[in-house]
Description:
The chain has 167 residues and is α+β, with helices and mostly antiparallel strands. 40% of the residues lie in helices and 18% in strands. The chain has helices at residues 4-23, 73-87, 112-122, 126-132, 153-166; strands at residues 43-44, 56-58, 61-66, 91-96, 107-111, 136-138, 148-152. The longest helix is centred in the N-terminal third of the chain and has 20 residues, at 4-23.
Amino acid sequence: MANPSKAKGTAWESAVRDYMNKALGLVDETGTFVDIFSALNVRRAAQEGARDVGDVHAVPFVLECKDVLGPAVPAWLRQAHVEAAHAGYPYGVAVHKVRRAAVARGRVHFGVRTWTRVRVAMGLTTPQMRERYAFAPAVRGLDSTRWYLTTDMEHFTQLVADLRTAR
């Protein structure tokens, strides 16, 4: 791969996929899928050009993975929502790499609407959702489209497991 930025992004996407598959018990000790045909396996999506479907699919989420220094979370979340719609998934989130930290410490960002829809689908109150999955809000001015909630990959992976069980 000639483009170093693309190589970094691909490595982060693969690390997120591998971490989630292992944490969700979808792979054995060698990293091989327990059930290769399971729709619940976390996978990197093929690039689709103008109708991109996101970087990683973890049913029911599309993850837009970012390995950059300067975060642009509201723009990433807009991109994640569009790509989730293209892929036919109900939820889009952004996953930002934390420098010199394990994948489990990566930051997972939810738009307020997505966070609320997931919370309602799980039957949780706002305090329950915030506490159970260690969410912290980020409020940027009066424009609520720029607000978001953040957790880490470890808590997000547990949320995915719990949401899959609740469905």
